[in-house]
Amino acid sequence: MDEKKLTHNNSFLKLLSKGRTDKGPLLILAPMEDITDPPFRVICKRFGADVMVSEFISSEGLIRDAIKSLHKLDFSESERPVGIQIFGHDENSMCLAAEVAERANPDFVDINWGCPVKKIVAKGAGAAILNDIPKMVKITASVVKAVKLPVTIKTRLGWDENNKNIVDIAERLQDVGIKAISIHGRTKAQLYKGDADWTLIGEVKKNSRMYIPVFGNGDITSPEKAKEMLQYDLDGLMIGRATIGNPWIFKQIKEYFKTGIIPPLPTINERVEICKEHLKNAIEWKGERTGIAESRKHYSGYFKGIPDFKPYRIILVTSNDSNQIFDTLEEIKIKFKE
Length: 338
Known about the structure:
Layout: H1 3-18, E1 26-29, H2 38-46, E2 52-53, E3 57-58, H3 59-63, H4 67-71, E4 82-87, H5 91-103, E5 108-113, H6 118-121, H7 133-146, E6 151-156, H8 166-175, E7 180-184, H9 198-206, E8 214-217, H10 223-228, E9 236-239, H11 249-259, H12 268-286, H13 288-302, H14 310-318, H15 322-335
Parallel strand pairs: 1-9, 2-4, 3-4, 4-5, 5-6, 6-7, 7-8, 8-9
């Protein structure tokens, strides 16, 4: 590994070792398919996200040189520290994919052992591995040995209500060399239903044998909710769905930790400009058709709370013409001038 890569590696490990400070825990943007791409990650970074993780990438896709998978390796220097997340079920493929990811020069490689989506689980990947902990540990150990970069894990509490074995899982993964673990407070069986259970994440952190950073994920929907999670003494908070169309949540959380006051939302003008930047970069990165389609997920969040906004929202989420969308965004600035 060259000197530049070692510098990034060491910087990330130093950040992890600092973990929670008097300014609050590290804030991490959770990986989300077709959401946490470079155009969105750059914006989240500007609003205070400390650590970025790519969309999850198929190990099989990477080793087959699949164009879509390789495209997901892209990131900008401004995003650092940034990790590339891989998923899969085959030990050899996961190791090869980790090596491919390492050549892209991220700060760390993350393994997704937590995605509960049916198409991923059906292949034995993601949260499916929670049914076979020895295999989970074996593959993780092999990936750790395959790369020089730090390896981190994202997973869940366990397979179902009767198998919430995350305290043991975390300890075993730590023992094979991972540098941090992010835990979603639900089981695979829960998917995204019910409330996230942070008490077990707290138990992982309290385990006297654990020395790596522990990050919590699930149901962090507001600064107040984020502060509530501080009771578990975790090193960081990983925020996912609440960031969609709402990248300023990181800034709000940090300000709330610091002053006890939640800063106001950006003005309409500011939101329009952020939205325009996001769409422009998405089109440049993914092409007009895909860039427009995937940006639609964010509009409800970007303009949440604006009265009588429905006619504009309909145009934003149905139009396939970028010029029409940009014109509509300019109209929004005029219509809702503050």
